[in-house]
């Protein structure tokens, strides 16, 4: 059976995908029958997804099946407002993450202030203990004098 799927290219941490027509049993990056497009997830412009629609239709008519990811890429490539929607969603996610980090920072500062207020009474208790120790030392010295 023939499938339309992605074949990975590019370097480490820099993915680049070819949209290819291959036999179902072949390897992911193995020999392909035909390259019908590409997908570069690092780009943020119209060249992000290129797809030859006529060749895709030809292979689908021949009985080829598309992978789920290729179906999504086809849908995105046909949508003219795709880039605007993507940038809007991305900005919303960035704003959400920024607010989450800000809340975490504030919550870290609040326990730190409480810890400071708890340390102050502890220091006072230490100063109270010090005179008691001096009193004990004086008592011990007076007892030595008596003997």
State the main characteristics.
147 residues, S16 Ribosomal Protein, Chain: A, 2 domains, five-stranded mixed β-sheet
CATH 4th-level superfamily of the largest domain: Ribosomal protein S16
What spatial order of strands do you see in the largest sheet? 4-3-2-1-5
| Number of DSSP strand runs | 5
- What letter string, H or E per element, gives the SSE order? EEEEHEHH
**N/C terminus separation:** 108 Å
SS-derived structural category: alpha+beta
Number of domains: 2
Low-confidence stretches: none
CATH class bucket of the largest domain: Alpha Beta
Averaging pLDDT over every residue, what do you get?
81
Quick rundown:
By secondary structure, the protein is α+β, with helices and mostly antiparallel strands. Helices cover 58% and strands 21% of the residues.
Topology:
Elements: E1 2-11, E2 14-23, E3 34-39, E4 49-51, H1 53-61, E5 65-66, H2 68-78, H3 82-146
Parallel strand pairs: 1-5
Antiparallel strand pairs: 1-2, 2-3, 3-4
